[in-house]
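Incident log, support desk, overnight shift.

02:14 A customer reports that sequence design results differ from what the structure should imply. Their input is reproduced verbatim below. On-call engineer (initials T.W.) acknowledged and began investigating.
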């Protein structure tokens, strides 16, 4: 095959074809551009006129219709699934629809106007402006400042329930707020005021308060206790945390609620060992435990705790106890020992009447061993001597069959033998001056 020759005529034909193709492409683009220029953006009935949009943007800022809540949080434009029907999302869409969506310039202006009214002591007018600032730019420093000032307005207009709720709302939303220490002071003062009112007038819990706006609608005392709790929970390492716990404990103590008082005294002892109220928490906690004890027929764990606490007071505060206080603690310690001995005596007598002499001897021996200085110690030794050698009444009609079918009964025999050994030890000391064995 012979290659085709590239003649001058052939090159001219190729160039003409390329130029024709270029002209066709350019003509198509011009035609498309001319056609697109005739298209217009459709105008919907609910669309805002351009003049209105420019006017609103000039007055409120370029972000008048922005859906951005703040510079720290950007929500999604659309909610899918069940989130679309959440109350919070419905509220946001409604506010945006009626023109009350998030807007920082409006919020800043409302905050500035409210601050001016606050400085002039026009608290009622300032409340409305602070609410606008909170509503128009949430989750921001503007909202934090507005919440604090709103609570202050309610505080200075003697609307203490609203103020306390607003303080608590501020701390819940902004846990590290710079107003934290001042919030604790306000809540503590409000709680003190409510407690004093309730102690003076003894308001009924379920009767609504429809006259005095400085008090809660129901349960003035309960709201005061809750306010003290807010001080401790919101600022657990603040200067008023231990004061609030002590105030709660004292309020329960005065109302003769010994279990609750004991809990808060114990909380102060464990969580705030450097508190100025530490000694008082020990002394009053000891009294709360003793008064919460209901007698030998009830559970005695709290009496054991009182015994430990009394010993702890004598060891931990030897220099801080005055003469009378030290003597009272010693007397209380002896009273606790007498109560413990009475508990053991009551159980021993119960078992002795039922002719369960082994169990009775155990409790008599405990009295003689652990509480030798009580009045029941010598009586317990006498009872031990009178019950010596007596056999228990057997409730088992077939002891041989039971031993065969229930080998665990041998363990019970071992326990009975140990009890007999303790009884022998207790009988070994008849002086009563010292416990037989520790």
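02:41 Re-run completed on a clean worker. Output:
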């Amino acid at each position: 095959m012979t290659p085709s020759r590239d003649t001058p005529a052939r090159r001219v034909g190729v160039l003409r074809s390329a130029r024709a193709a270029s002209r066709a492409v350019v003509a198509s683009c011009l035609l498309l551009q001319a056609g697109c220029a005739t298209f217009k953006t459709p105008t919907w009935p609910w669309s805002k006129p351009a003049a209105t949009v420019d006017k609103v943007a000039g007055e409120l800022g370029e972000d008048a219709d922005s859906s951005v809540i703040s510079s720290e949080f950007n929500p999604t434009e659309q909610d899918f699934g069940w989130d679309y029907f959440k109350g919070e999302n419905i509220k946001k869409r409604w506010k945006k629809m009626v023109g009350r969506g998030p807007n920082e310039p409006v919020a800043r202006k409302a905050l500035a106007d409210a601050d001016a009214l606050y400085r002039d002591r026009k608290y009622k007018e300032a409340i409305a402006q602070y609410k606008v600032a909170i509503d128009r730019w949430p989750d921001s420093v503007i909202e934090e400042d507005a919440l604090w000032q709103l609570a202050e307005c309610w505080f200075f207009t003697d609307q203490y329930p609203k103020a306390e709720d607003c303080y608590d709302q501020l701390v819940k939303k902004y846990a590290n707020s710079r107003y934290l220490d001042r919030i604790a002071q306000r809540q503590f003062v409000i709680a003190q005021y409510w407690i004093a009112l309730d102690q003076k007038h003894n308001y009924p819990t379920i009767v609504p308060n429809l006259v005095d706006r400085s008090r809660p609608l129901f349960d003035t005392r309960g709201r005061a206790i809750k306010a003290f709790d807010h001080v401790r929970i919101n600022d657990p390492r603040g200067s008023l945390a231990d004061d609030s716990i002590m105030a709660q404990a004292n309020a329960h103590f005065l109302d003769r609620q010994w279990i609750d008082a004991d809990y808060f005294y114990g909380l102060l002892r464990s969580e705030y060992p450097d508190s100025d109220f530490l000694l008082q928490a020990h002394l009053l906690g000891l009294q709360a435990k003793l008064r919460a004890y209901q007698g030998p027929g009830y559970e005695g764990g709290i009496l054991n705790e009182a015994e430990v606490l009394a010993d702890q007071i004598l060891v931990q505060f030897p220099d801080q106890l005055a003469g009378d206080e030290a003597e009272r603690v010693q007397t209380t310690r002896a009273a606790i020992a007498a109560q413990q001995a009475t508990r053991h005596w009551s159980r021993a007598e119960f078992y002795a009447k039922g002719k369960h002499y082994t169990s009775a001897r155990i409790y008599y021996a405990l009295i003689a061993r652990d509480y030798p200085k009580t009045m029941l110690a010598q009586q317990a030794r006498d009872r031990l001597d009178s019950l010596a050698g007596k056999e228990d009444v057997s409730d088992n009609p077939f002891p041989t069959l039971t031993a065969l079918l229930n080998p665990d009964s041998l363990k019970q025999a071992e326990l009975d033998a140990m009890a007999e050994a303790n009884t022998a030890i207790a009988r070994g000391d008849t002086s009563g001056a010292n416990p037989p064995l520790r």
